[in-house]
Design goal:
With 348 residues, the protein is an alpha+beta fold. It folds into two domains: 189 residues, Fructose-1,6-Bisphosphatase, subunit A, domain 1 (Fructose-1,6-Bisphosphatase, Chain A, domain 1, 2-Layer Sandwich), CATH 3.30.540; 141 residues, D-Maltodextrin-Binding Protein, domain 2 (3-Layer(aba) Sandwich), CATH 3.40.190. The protein is 36% helix and 20% strand. The chain is built from nine helices and 15 strands. The strands form three sheets. An eight-stranded mixed sheet has the order 2-1-3-4-5-6-7-8, sandwiched between helices. It has a five-stranded mixed sheet with strand order 10-9-11-15-13, with helices on both faces. The chain has a two-stranded antiparallel ribbon with strand order 12-14. Helix 6 links the parallel strand 9 and strand 10. Helix 2 runs antiparallel to helix 4. The longest helix is centred in the C-terminal third of the chain and has 32 residues. The protein is globular, with a radius of gyration of 21 Å. Bound molecules: 2,5-anhydro-1,6-di-O-phosphono-D-mannitol and magnesium ion. Magnesium ion binds next to strand 3.
Length: 348
């Protein structure tokens, strides 16, 4: 049976009391926006040639950078939906409050319009990530920050679209993770990956290993275990540099993706609200886990919109082993701190 994304979100409504008609309508906004974005992504390399004359393309439209275009397209598509009260994006410094005082506005949507900025101009997979919250109870509805500064565990839906060898939309409303592939011949997202489960153990690890000298020690220990066969097999390395694409492979093939704190980014590089949160939500829904190295990503109470976080996400087995390494490192640190303290007390 062929099931479209639109049909699927209606079916989810029947399974879930929390999934309202307004949420379906909101989610369908991603269909139009992502089709518009992907059509521009597919033409990305042609822009300079076809748009050379007066900076306009063959349709006479003004050319924009792809990430700006993606951002504006998403904002336009979601702005039209009455149930959206707040929009926040990686590209905008502040969240946008759309409907002051409207009781119809129930949701906040937060997104990274085009993740993988270093890959945009070189025809490598990039994607859009999104996270949806309900309007928080007992909050000032006119303060858009209060809509978005909620822990990831409060997400009512999350997902991403990747623009790769095909265009794939993956989402969850807390009832499993489902993937849809865009059939370009009919312009429809078709269900191709129903109820995705991450393999308990995979064979790939994904990290920018060039920063190894700047990683906390237990990350290095863990990577060595993955490579040496100490975890039952020798893992192979894959790193695309678009987190959304690296995660998509990890979701389907298993393994682990890591972006620890480094000297340049002491809090980690990835953004909590529109990168780590939606991916962590999907990973948990698919049987995996996600942490910042110390705690579950979805439990973190955010303090600002663009806050960064270390991010480790993967299948059950790899995450348990990573947690073991992190716990042992913390225990070692505690022992050293206690030893230092007792030496100071003794000598002092
Ligand atoms: P972006 O949102 O500007 O694209 O930055 C995030 C990206 C991630 O997709 C990717 O994992 C990471 O940056 C790559 O960083 P680096 O080039 O330092 O490895
Ligand atoms: Mg990004």
């Amino acid at each position: 049976m062929v099931i479209s994304f639109q049909q699927h979100i209606v079916q989810e409504q029947n399974h879930l009391l929390g999934s309202s008609v307004e949420l379906q309508w909101l989610l369908s906004g991603i269909i139009l926006a992502s089709k518009l974005i992907q059509s521009q992504v597919r033409r990305a390399g042609l822009v300079d040639i076809l748009g050379a004359l007066e900076n306009t393309n063959v349709q006479g439209e003004i050319q924009q950078k792809l990430d700006v275009y993606a951002n504006e397209t998403l904002i336009t598509c979601f702005r039209q939906r009455a149930s959206v009260g707040v929009i926040a994006s990686e590209e905008n410094e502040h969240p946008i409050l759309l409907r002051r005082g409207s009781s119809d506005a129930q949701y906040a949507i937060i997104f990274d319009p085009l993740d993988g900025s270093s890959n945009i101009d070189v025809a490598v997979t990039i994607g859009t990530t999104f996270s949806i919250f309900c309007r928080p109870e007992n909050a000032d509805a006119d303060d858009p920050l209060q809509w978005v500064l909620q822990p990831g565990s409060k997400q009512v839906a999350a997902g991403y679209v990747i623009y790769g060898s095909s265009t794939v939309l993956v989402y969850s409303v807390g009832n499993g993770v489902h993937g849809f592939t865009l059939d370009p011949s009919i312009g429809t997202y078709i269900l191709t990956h129903e109820n995705i489960r991450m393999p308990e153990q995979g064979g790939y690890y994904s990290i920018n290993e060039s920063y190894v000298a700047k990683f906390p020690g237990h990350y290095v220990e863990y990577i060595n275990k993955l490579k040496s066969g100490a975890l039952g097999k020798s893992y192979s390395s894959r790193f695309i540099g678009s987190m959304v694409a690296d995660f998509h492979r990890t979701l389907l093939r298993g393994g682990i993706f890591l972006y620890p704190a480094t000297g340049d980014f002491p809090e980690g590089r990835l953004r909590l609200l529109y990168e780590a949160n939606p991916i962590a939500f999907l990973a948990e829904q698919a049987g995996g886990a996600a942490t910042n190295g110390e705690r579950r990503i979805l439990d973190i109470e955010p303090t600002h919109l663009h806050q960064r976080s270390s991010f480790v996400v993967g299948g059950k087995f790899e995450m348990e082993e990573f947690e073991r390494c992190a716990r042992e490192a913390r225990e070692k640190d505690d022992i050293l701190t206690n030893q230092k303290r007792s030496r100071v007390e003794y000598t002092g």
